[in-house]
Specification:
Blueprint lengths: L2 E6 L10 H8 L3 E4 L5 H4 L7 E4 L11 H13 L3 E6 L9 H10 L4 E4 L4 H9 L11 E6 L11 H4 L4 E6 L5 H10 L7 E6 L7 E6 L3 H7 L6 E5 L6 H4 L10 H9 L1
Parallel strand pairs: 1-4, 1-5, 2-3, 2-4, 6-7
Antiparallel strand pairs: 7-10, 8-9, 8-10
The structure holds S-adenosylmethionine.
């Protein structure tokens, strides 16, 4: 019997990979990776490791979730050391929970290596502290992905003051998101930002307010992957922005984004 190591590949900059993740990659027989993992990270796997793209971009659909689950079980039962490599952290909007449930049900040994989730990476590289004693005492992570054509979120909870709301997969529903937050009591002047491809040399940060952000994101032509950050902490961005995306984060990051 082999094993499956569920590995978080971080938000983009390959140097944000953990040492444990690197060790798992260098011991792997097979690596199954998603579309948001930087190619430079896949390159860090053992030279002899088989690399299987299972990514889930709509237009570039490789395997269904059920097929990925079945493949993980089959490979581990065949004695392979399998790395299941995901963007960010596997347990934050990454379906990692579903995959390890399936492994547990089939008696497959597994380990989990956490990764830097996009909110942490984007906050750091865009200069937006996610909490701050003066502005925000809570952090809420939500998905803006539509379910059954609606955004089924707890708007009252999201519209509370003195917290930061980070929305994954929220670009398509940004206008609705801002509208709902304002309708539930947040002022239109609440600072908000969209960060595209955070932590990579292509990072773009667009800041505005709940009233203006959706129009700005449209006029700037922002494209996924993006994170939306809403809260007073966003106003610190102008003061704390340190990362110059035009400059290489690291040679590995540049290599990763060029081949993406
Ligand atoms: C399926 S979720 C996976 C999240 C991942 N497990 C994590 O912990 O970051 C994919 C979404 O994460 C966000 N995301 C991931 N990487 C990003 C990046 N470098 N910059 C901005 N958003 C990112 C985007 O909202 C993207 O649509």
């Amino acid at each position: 019997m082999g094993e499956v190591v569920l590995v978080g590949g971080g938000p983009g900059d390959p140097e944000l990979l953990t040492v444990k993740a690197l060790k798992a990659l260098q011991a792997a027989d097979v690596v199954l990776y998603d579309n948001l993992v930087a190619p430079a990270i896949v390159d860090m796997a053992r030279a002899q490791a088989e690399r299987i793209y299972v990514g889930k971009r709509c237009a570039n659909h490789a395997l269904t979730q059920a097929e990925i689950n079945a493949l993980l079980v089959r490979l581990a039962q065949g004695g392979k050391r399998v790395v299941r490599l995901k963007g960010g952290d596997p347990f934050v909007f990454g379906r990692g929970g579903e995959e390890v449930e399936h492994l547990a049900e089939h008696g497959i040994p597994f380990r989990i290596v956490p990764g830097v989730t996009a909110a942490a990476g984007v906050g750091a590289y865009a200069g937006i502290p996610l909490t701050h004693r003066d502005y925000s005492q809570a952090l809420v992570l939500v998905t803006g992905h539509r379910k059954d054509e609606t955004l089924d979120l707890d708007w009252e909870a999201l519209a509370r003051p003195r917290q930061t709301v980070v929305v994954y997969m929220g670009l398509q529903t940004l206008a609705l998101l801002c509208e709902k937050l304002m309708a539930h009591g947040l002022p239109g002047s609440t600072p908000a930002a969209v960060v595209e491809r955070g932590t990579t040399p292509e990072q773009r940060v667009v800041t505005g307010t709940l009233a203006t952000l959706s129009g700005l994101a449209r006029s700037e032509g922002l494209r996924p992957p993006t994170l939306v950050v809403v809260g007073e902490v966003v106003k610190l961005q102008a003061k704390l922005a340190w990362f110059e995306p035009g400059e290489a984060v690291s040679s590995e990051a540049r290599k990763g984004s060029q081949s993406a």
